[in-house]
Amino acid sequence: MKKKTAFITGVAGFLGSHLADRLLKEGWKLIGCDNLIGGYLDNVPPAVEFYTHDCGDRETMVKIMRGVDVVFHCACTAYEGLSVFSPYLVTRNTYDITISVLSAAIANKVKRFVFCSSMARYGTQDKLPFTEDMNPKPQDPYGIAKLAAEYTIQNLCQLHKMEYVIAVPHNIIGPRQKYDDPYRNVASIMINLMLQNRQPVIYGDGNQKRCFSFIDDVVEPLFKLAISKHVIGEVINIGPDEEFITINELAQIIARQLNFSLKPIYLSSRPSEVKLALCSAQKARDLLSYRPSVTLESGIQSMIFYIKDRKPKPFRYHLDLEIVSDITPKTWRDKLF
Prior knowledge:
Layout: E1 5-9, H1 14-25, E2 29-33, E3 49-51, H2 58-64, E4 70-73, H3 87-107, E5 112-116, H4 141-160, E6 163-169, E7 172-173, H5 186-195, E8 201-203, E9 209-210, E10 213-214, H6 216-227, E11 235-238, E12 245-246, H7 247-258, E13 265-267, H8 282-288, H9 296-310, H10 330-333
């Protein structure tokens, strides 16, 4: 029997590399690309046929995607907060690259396209939790770009008869997450800072609330999206709707595990940040038998082990701010991390 072949964008990233591990266990052949903006080269499993091409290079995408059965589009500059200050960078590497990969997939007659969207699609809603049938209200360029990508995927896949599924993972944590990135990944940033005996920075009052998804509990549903017939054309939240905690509580959990004396530095709220973001997991339970297996405490512990093993790092301001004003967070403007 011919091996199934998958193409993973962002395969050197946190999500893409774990997904690659899962597919390799199933005996799939894997091709992947990553321009290494948001990942580490050593994340890429050796068995992956790997390219360092940018997803926006459509001609190259067409060439390296030949013979592929399923595309997992994980690549993205997933910088929700930064997108209001670097909108060109973020939207180009969210919407534009999606259309490049999508066009190449259709040209190669790929059977199924699995798109990783974002809970930023929901914005601020009148009630919690966010359900897939809600009217999306994205409130920053990143969320707008993700939603625009969803609409384009639906339009072109229906027209050209390519199967598609839209996954909405949210607040993923775990080993391999880029922890020297000052613009995203709040748990990783806090762990990296505290391991350097530095206090974490919290925007606003710290009472923003989130659920955090351990990577293993995201990868398994994504794999099922590639092989299940009953999910075609669906939008599905991927992540827990339990352990809904504040950013203050997250800092306390990390500090307790590190035996760190916590005295957070509070700065002004970030513009356009959603205060309460909670996605319902009911549809994933119904369609994918979704059941989280890793608690938040255990997930944080595994991240601490990972960062300790790799050693804490200075933060690398690898992305330029396009708009600098009096509402640009000081952490980025003055490189405080």
